[in-house]
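question for whoever is on the cluster today: can someone run the full assembly for these? two chains, 410 residues total. i dont have access anymore since they changed the login thing
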Amino acid sequence: MKTLESIVSFIEENFLFGDKIHVSQEQSLTKNNVIDSTGILEIISFIEHSYNISVHDEDIVPENFDSIQSITQYINTKKTE
Amino acid sequence: MNIEKSLLEMDFEQETNTIKNFLRHSITKILHKKGVVVGLSGGIDSSLSAALCVQALGKERVLGLLMPERDSSPETVPLSRDLARHLDIRTVTRDITSTLESLDVYSGYARIARALIPEYSADWKSKIITNQSNKKKTVTFHSLVAHSPDGEKWTKRIPIQEYLGLVATTNYKQRVRKNIEYHYADANNFAVIGTPNRLEYELGFFVKNGDGAADIKPIAHLYKTQVYGLARHLGLPQQILDRPPSTDTFSLPQSQDEFYFALPYREMDICLFALNNGISVQDVAAELTLPPVQVEHIFSDIHTKRRTTSPLHLEPLLVPRSSRVEPYP
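^ ran it for u. tokens below:
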């Protein structure tokens, strides 16, 4: 499964109980009430375990984790490091 | 403009009378109780609440409960007793350490702490702090700060599952205390007083069914600055007025701002008051000598805290129109 599909699937299963996500890839997940900051931390745990990457404290900012697109970009960048 | 001055432009005598009348009316006409139970922590909020109850109902109708535990500050009990002597009220002391032990609170906490810091053991001291800062927009996360007996210091970010476990474990402290308060309320036909100030109430800094549970919350409309002003007006003991606000929940001293508010109460009061009264970012920035962008971050954080903690204020949700129980008018 590609990174983007994997993230969408995690959000839909974990936060929406299988419903389809209603925001676009660029839109804010928190401002559109899909997840809150606890949800972001769940996504970070998911990423660390699924992709075997370590998310540093200073990386935990909205620019990296508040949209499907930014999460996907962050993972792809970390995978190439 | 001077926002802090506006906050303190309160007629404390009139405010005292308003709260006294509210308490008397609530107890006698709505709740039909004989008095009140107040959990005393030696802090400013519970002390002021108890003092107002004594003024409203008389000292015989106020029971102070002291409920320390192993991690309580050494000042908590002496300050609570000073306050009770000052108000001349009856007190009951119930140390809740053994109850918390039976609920696996200390061992459960240590087990989670060890998952983060393998060297952690029961004789270490620790607390949880937030990463929140008014300097930049962040995603809130928390870290465990732990000190070993020989001075070794650790700070470790807490993954979400471990964070939830630590919070659930320490929330037992507030929930056990509230159970005891309701026990003594039942036994005396008294009501239970909740002691949050406006910062705590409005921004959701309380444990649901813990310190958030109460029959009356007499100071939930007062900013912390106003709480101190009213406490001074009522002549509360100086050592209580001087005590810095603390959660008194962890074995290391922990201020409320390092766990939740991210700002000292004075600045947080000014920001919340400004937001509630339509005062501009520029005026707040000038008073706090902060760049406007930082004030915008604080305002945004207040909105976020209100939104994310709003479920804490909700009554249980019922299926619309299916309930046959109508609220009593």
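summary bc i know u wont read the tokens: The interface with chain A takes residues 131, 136-141, 143, 157, 159-161, 163-164, 304, 307-308 of chain B (CB under 8 Å). The domain at 3-100+166-311 of chain B is CATH 3.40.50.620 (Rossmann fold).
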